[in-house]
Amino acid sequence: MNSGISQPSDESIAIEVQKGNVEAFGLLAGRYRPKLLRYGSKLLFNKSEVEDAVQEIFLRAYQYIQSFDAKQKFSPWIYRIAHNQFINLGKKRARELLDFFDPETFFPHFGMRPAFGEKADGQIKELLDEFVNKLDLKYKEPLLLYHIEGFAYKEIAQILKIPTGTVSIRIARGLAKLKNLCRPV
């Protein structure tokens, strides 16, 4: 039931942090920690690495909070920091990165984007992760950001620092490559 009390926006909380309210940053961290852990777990193998990386993301976000433009949305800004942290860690560890699935196979209507865990059991998820593991990062990450994290193409473009048209192309090509990988031999 709605109590009539609205929650402050991420952007208004960030402004408070910029003004020196250190405690307000804890609100942002509380809101984004589960999201960034989920995002990182799709890109990195080691859970403790993901947790450490998320801590580093928050340190960097706090360190650079003055560079945040409150006229923009906060989520693409912090996801850009997360993207850089996870990619740098992945390169440092020289590992394959993970991701996910073919939404057309599991969603009754392509336009719908429910969370992956709501549609696939453990065995299906493992099989899909195996196929997605074979995709290049340039296809995996836009698919993850769109289908799992729920970002719009424009926001993905901001996070990855690529044109919106490139986001669209990479998602389409990633889905096509995933379909080819999933076909029976």
Globally, the shape reads: globular
Percentage of helical residues? 55-70%
Give the count of structural domains: 2
Oligomer: single chain
Number of E strands: 0
Instruction: Specify the CATH homologous superfamily of the largest domain.
Output: RNA polymerase sigma factor, region 2, helix turn helix motif
Q: Which structural class matches the secondary elements?
A: mainly alpha
Written as H for each helix and E for each strand, in order along the chain, the element string is HHHHHHHHH
Beta-strand content: under 5%
CATH C-level class of the largest domain is Mainly Alpha
**What CATH architecture label of the largest domain applies?**
Orthogonal Bundle
C-alpha Rg (nearest Å) = 17 Å
Detail the poorly predicted runs: 94-120
With helices defined by DSSP (H or I, 4 residues minimum), what is the helix count? 9
- The residue-averaged pLDDT reads 81
**Largest beta-sheet characterization:** none
Q: Provide the CATH topology of the largest domain.
A: Rna Polymerase Sigma Factor, Chain: A
Span of the ends, CA to CA:
52 Å
